[in-house]
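Homework help board

Subject: predicted structure for assignment chain

Our instructor gave us this sequence and asked us to write out the predicted structure in token form, then describe one feature. I got the tokens but I'm not sure how to describe them. Can anyone check?
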Amino acid sequence: MRKTIRKFIGLLTLIPLSTFADYSNHPQAVLFIEKMTSEHNFSEEQLTGWLSVAERQESIIKAMSRPAEKAKPWHEYRRIFVTDKRIERGREFWLENQDTLIKASSEFGVDPAIIVSIIGVETNYGRNVGSYKVIDALTTLAFDYYTNIEKRESRRKFFTIQLEHLLLLAREQNKDPITLKGSYAGAMGWGQFMPNSYRNYAVDYDNDEFADIWDNPTDAIGSVANYFIKHGWKTGQPVATKAYIEGSIDSSAVNKMKRPKQTIGYFIKEGYRPLDKYSKDTLALPIRLEAKYGDEYWLGLHNFYVIGRYNPRTKYAMAVFQLSQQIQASICEKNNICPPKA
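My token output:
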């Protein structure tokens, strides 16, 4: 039977995708349905019903092909997220959820300013959680988003896994997967978790027996903190330091969002002059940002890399870091609440 299905799929791949009326007939979806029925005991009828409703979204493909991270220089990217309005809303969010933030900071050891900043950057504190049907986003990206031949399989595999987790999550939380909304990439809720991250890291932080980051800021705070500690956040450690440059540096090494392997001492020898004084044995990664009137340089430390585990882009991690600094400064100045960094 399995061989017959795969032979049928091979014939389907010769048919233009535009001829498929819905995703339930897509050749990749046939394999997906087979997997979900055999491994997770979903009914074929139920899966076919969901996928027949899912729609290919050209706007998603266009958005994925032109990510803002690459298109905008740092000084323009920063203006989107580090704004007076977002800082003020971050301060308000902090005050409204102060007890939860204190609890999360104590239990998980994550800087509360970073937790608030992540939620601010991702959804503007729950105001912009996404308007796409998540099932549309994930079917489009799993079955039809092939930017080039090299990335085809890895992209398809990643989003197919996310679609699998979406349906498992919906079953676990007794939700209709057709109704769930999120970003054009399929991220959901206040913290914009992908389905697998939702299942792996979302926590029920108010003890109501339901981990809800769609509508519950308490669960969102606990879930973001849990995500960071599970990805290696080091309590009480700094995030980044600005640096000046003497002479010329190896520009090919900058902005690689990878786990730091070189020390600050190494970068000092390479011409970096960090503004803050840390041990020369501290591991760091070099950053160059296109400011309005010239480049600026930073050394990102281990916790900077951990922020990048949320979104592996240098500009994203720096926006989160700088917004967190501004929010903490605002709450300290206006409310005389100057919490120590966790």
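Reply (TA_rk): Your tokens look well-formed. For the description, you could write something like this. The first strand starts at residue 132 and ends at 133. That's the kind of observation they're looking for.
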